Amino acid sequence: MERKVSMKDIAERVGVSIALVSYVLNEKEGRVGPEMAQQIRKVAQELNYRPNLIARSLQSGRTNTLGLIVADISNPFFSNIARIIEDEAKQYGYTVLFGSSDESVEKSQGLIDTFLNRQADALILAPAAGTEPQLMALKKKKIPFVLVDRYFPSVPANSVRIDNYQAAYKAVTHLLRTGKKRIGMLTYDGGMEHMQERERGYRQALEDHGLYQAALSQRASYLHLQEGVATGLSHLLQPDRKVDAVFFATNSLAIEGLKQLNALRLKVPDDVAVISFDESDAFDLFYAPVSYVRQSLRDMGREAVRLAIQGVEQKSRPQVDVIVGADLVIRKSCGFKAG
Amino acid sequence: MERKVSMKDIAERVGVSIALVSYVLNEKEGRVGPEMAQQIRKVAQELNYRPNLIARSLQSGRTNTLGLIVADISNPFFSNIARIIEDEAKQYGYTVLFGSSDESVEKSQGLIDTFLNRQADALILAPAAGTEPQLMALKKKKIPFVLVDRYFPSVPANSVRIDNYQAAYKAVTHLLRTGKKRIGMLTYDGGMEHMQERERGYRQALEDHGLYQAALSQRASYLHLQEGVATGLSHLLQPDRKVDAVFFATNSLAIEGLKQLNALRLKVPDDVAVISFDESDAFDLFYAPVSYVRQSLRDMGREAVRLAIQGVEQKSRPQVDVIVGADLVIRKSCGFKAG
DNA sequence: CTGAAAGCGCTTACAG
DNA sequence: CTGAAAGCGCTTACAG
Question: Which pLDDT score, from 0 to 100, does residue B35 have?
Answer without folding.
Answer: 82
